[in-house]
Amino acid sequence: MNVRIVDEVPSLKEKFPSSGKTFEEVSQNLLPLADFRAAVNGRDSFFRLQDSIVELPERSLESHGSCIGQFVIVFRRLDLVANRSLYCKLSQTLRDLLKATSSSDALFAKLCVTPAAAEDARASELSLILQLEAIGSTPEQAEFRWSFGLRHVQEVIISASRLWREQLANLDL
After folding, report:
1. In DSSP terms, which residues pair with 115 in a beta bridge?
2. Which pLDDT tens digit goes with each residue over 73-127?
3. How would you list the strands of the sheet with 126-136, edge to edge?
4. CA of 3: how far to CAs of 28, 60, 145, 149, 162, in Å?
5. Any bridge partners for residue 52, and if so which?
6. Which contacts of 166-172 are long-range, i.e. CB under 8 A and separated by 24 or more positions?
7. Where are the domains of the chain?
């Protein structure tokens, strides 16, 4: 997986204003997406999914496909949502773990620390945007690869959640 930390990730909601689909719309047909949402928002997770958008390839006569999703992840603990250094460390941790889990050259991930995307968020709150994209020779192959990549992201977030819980408990944050 090609994983990069970037300064900015354009919003998929702006790129696909009418065709980008939310979790609820897509997860009915895509089990890995429902599993991902449950894992990130789970009671044992150190994080919370604040927003998401997914753009699946159209099933057509195209000879190739691309599947992309964007996830806004925040710390569950309110006392951490404005700590930029923790978000930067989180993005580095996720980058390192993602690089170690998948060697697919058809998967691309971008990580970006940015002000919170929610309309009701305070100006000081931050979030981590994780964008996952997969390409394939057919739309079905792109969707399969993306689902596979999303499972890796889910495993990494669960691992990072455990790691961060232990580290922050030791620091008494």
Report:
1. 126
2. 999 988 889 999 999 999 999 999 898 877 788 999 999 999 866 555 565 789 9
3. 2-5, 107-115, 126-136, 65-75, 47-55
4. 28, 29, 15, 11, 21
5. 71
6. 168/46, 168/80
7. 2-171
pLDDT digits (tens, 9 = 90+) for 7-60: 999 888 777 655 545 545 555 557 888 899 999 999 888 999 998 888 876 655
Single-letter amino acid, residue 75 = F
Let me know: does 143 contact 65? Beta carbons within 8 Å.
Answer: yes
Query: If you count them, how many residues does the chain have?
Result: 173
- Within the chain, residue ranges assigned H as helices are 12-15, 23-27, 31-40, 84-101, 139-171
Structure tokens at 4: 């990069």
Q: Which tokens hold the place of 65?
A: 């496909």
Token pair, residue 86, equals 């923790």
Amino acid at 28: Q
Half-sphere exposure at residue 149, Cβ-oriented, CA atoms within 13 angstroms: 30
CA separation, residue 70 to residues 63, 89, 95 (Å):
24, 20, 15
Using DSSP's 3-state secondary structure scheme, residue 61 falls into coil
Buried b (16+ CB within 10 A) or exposed e, 35-67: ebbebbeeeebbbbbbbbbbbbbeeeeeeebbb
